[in-house]
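Consider this today:
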Amino acid sequence: MRIPYYRLADQANVFIRNESARAYPSETGGILIGKFINNCVVITRAVGPGLNAQHASNHFRRDGEYSQQILDTFVMESNGEYDYLGEWHSHPAPCGPSTTDIAAIRWIANNKKYSVNHPVMALCTRESADSWLVSLYLFDERRLRRMKPCVMD
């Protein structure tokens, strides 16, 4: 499955950047909700970490129960049009996906409970004191591939 493009809703983009800045200097994250349209991943919503999440300068673990409750609500309200696409998290320093990130997204792709063969990972990195960059990746053919923004009508 070759999906080279993504569309990140403004609301989700702002949410990820704000949450990342709020949690700095620790990592934070959550889940991505949306759908696949042709060769584009459309992310409509980013969900936060939840109250029981664990945050550290080089580690993050989201609150799974919280994420599942929010996801279930969105899937139901959209009559199944939108669903879990993957994960997002922050890196307090400007660096790409770590080996831990790649192993985690591979685990999600291979875990039938997630029911997503090609999970998406959004990585929000701190570029400067007041600048955060969100990059999106797709796990495809056993590797993480960086996606490009797409323009949709």
Q: What stands out?
A: Residues 4 and 147 are 5 Å apart (CA to CA). The chain has one domain: 5-149. The first helix runs from residue 10 to 23. The chain has a mean pLDDT of 93.
